[in-house]
Amino acid sequence: MNDTHLKFVFKITVIGDGGVGKTSLIKKYTEGTFEEDYISTVGAQFSFYDEKINGDECKLYFWDIAGQKEFEFLRSDFYEESKAAIIVCSLEENNLGKESLNHLVDWYEDLNNNCGDIPVVIFANKVDLIDEENLDEGYVQSFIKEKNTIGVYRTSAKTGQGVTDAFRKIIRELYEKYKSNI
Amino acid sequence: MEKGEILEEKKVIENYVESIYVYDNAGVCLTSCGIKPENLDEHIVSGFFTAIKKFGQKLIPGTVVKSLIMSGHKLFYNNFENITFCIQCYDDLPNQVIDYILNRISNQFLEIYQERLPIRDGNISIFSDFSTYLSQFMEQPLIEGLLEDFGYKVLSEGVILFDEIREKILFAKVPEEYSSRKQIAMSGMLINFAKKLSNEYQGGDVNSILISSENRWICISKREYIYIIVLFPKTKNIELNIIVEKTEEILDNILKMLKIELIK
User: Fold this and answer.
1) Which of A10, A62, A41 is nearest to A179 (CA)?
2) What is the nearest CA distance from B46 to chain A, expressed in angstroms?
3) Which domain holds residue B202?
4) How would you write the pLDDT of chain A (182 residues) with one tens digit per residue?
5) Which of A173, B130, B218, B225 has the fewest Cβ atoms within 10 Å of its own Cβ atom?
6) Which of A142, A155, A13, A33 is CA-nearest to residue A85?
7) Residue B255: how many other CB atoms lie within 10 Å
8) Of chain A residues 140-179, which have a CB less than 8 A from chain B?
9) Residue B6 lies in a domain
10) Are residues B163 and B211 in the same domain?
11) A 46-85 residues with CB < 8 A to B
12) CA dihedral A33, A39, A44, A47 (to 10 degrees)
């Protein structure tokens, strides 16, 4: 290899209940979504986020996997060879929000069974719809401690809060991990 | 073996193949070359193909998507060791020719990178040299490569491809003493003579003649204005039906490709 700069591509699986805003979040802050309607028929959308770290090109390559029950049969196959995962839940104070929090553990275990112990980040989404001062994050905090995840980020596709910071955290984490293996 | 006269106008692989992608089971594109739509990231393309592949496996368990046919174009896939090789080409390119191209690429790739595949850890820069190989491969004459490959596979001593209309040798890989105009013209005359004989017995057109002589098998096949002469040593144990079948198969493919060239 004559090039001193390296090129990394990390597959990131994005999961969570249907309707929590996975696609809106990822799509708004990434590029390259390809023929959305076609990809949806096979249960995933693809996009990427890239950044240069120490001159090396790093790319997070997102597999935004449909959360609906109908796509359950495909999901585990779509996880294959993921280097990290984002589990998205909603902070909305309604059934969808509460269930998405309760299901965090199910998503985590599903992922763990298929990919092993890969880094996981929680996106607590739709933060713009709630009053952050009164937010009780006790459940999420105990979850991330127990499951040894990278962290939790309060995110909003509407205001942009949290998303880029989280992507940067993931990309650096993976870069450091895999660069040191070379 | 020495090369005789070679194709006058060399049509190269990129005249037939639009693009090549090599990607893993994560859908990460390891390397690619050829024409791609503007602003479309190669990982998005390989991700889509991977999702289709996985969907196909769920739809009909135990199967794998081998091709996607689109109007005027087709995509063919070959899976080796968790790596998929995909070529996008015009839909009139014969499938056997596509197999030849996919096999050439995958063999070369695995020969270089097989040991490094399990430890790549997201680092795709290790495959950057392969895009140079692919670019060079795309510039190779396809018919010539096909005939060389064919000659090697059927253990032949030599192959000559001749265009009767233009009276030109399109390809020759034989010992020099076997590629004179006289020898080739005799092959054409023999086919025409055999055709007359065949007509006497209401046999119709003649596809192939196989001559079993003391020192070698000589197979002459003809399609329209193209004929091929293949020499086999008598010392090798070769099944006669395979000789004729394989010779006709390669000739059919080449004729299709020459017709594509005429259209383009």
Assistant:
1) A10
2) 10
3) 144-263
4) 445 789 999 999 999 998 888 888 887 777 655 555 555 667 888 888 889 999 999 999 999 888 888 888 888 899 999 999 999 999 888 898 889 999 999 999 999 999 998 999 999 998 888 877 776 777 777 777 777 788 888 888 777 778 888 888 899 999 999 888 77
5) B225
6) A13
7) 16
8) 174, 178
9) no
10) yes
11) 46-48, 59, 61, 63, 73-74, 77-78, 80-83
12) -10
| B192 in a structural domain | yes
Beta bridge partners of residue B23, listed in sequence order = B29, B84
Strands of the sheet with A7-15, listed across from one edge: A44-53, A56-65, A7-15, A84-90, A120-125, A151-154
CA angle B126, B20, B252 (to 5 degrees): 135
Distance of residue B51 Cα from the nearest chain A Cα, in angstroms:
7
**Gyration radius of chain B's alpha carbons:** 21
Q: Is A1 within a domain?
A: no
Tokens at A6, concatenated? 């390296």
How many CA atoms lie less than 13 Å away from B258 in the CB half-sphere?
Answer: 22
In a domain, B184, yes or no: yes
**Does any CB of chain A come closer than 8 Å to the CB of residue B117?**
no
**Cβ–Cβ contact B132 with A under 8 A:** no
Torsion sign across C-alpha atoms A36, A168, A176, A182: positive
The answer to whether the beta carbons of residues B30 and B23 sit under 8 Å apart is: yes
Q: Which amino acid is at A72?
A: E
Environment class of residue B219 by beta-carbon count within 10 Å: exposed (0-12), middle (13-18) or buried (19+)?
A: buried
Domain count of the fold of chain B: 2
Q: How far is CA B89 from the centre of its chain?
A: 13
The answer for residues whose C-beta is within 8 angstroms of residue A95's C-beta and 6 or more apart is none
Rounded (5°) CA angle B98-B104-B105: 90
Task: Answer yes or no: is A2 within a domain.
Answer: no
Give me the CATH number covering residue A148.
Answer: 3.40.50.300
Contact by Cβ (8 Å): B71, B56: no
Q: Is B201 left (phi over 0), alpha (psi -120 to 50) or beta?
A: alpha
Amino acid making up residue B251: L
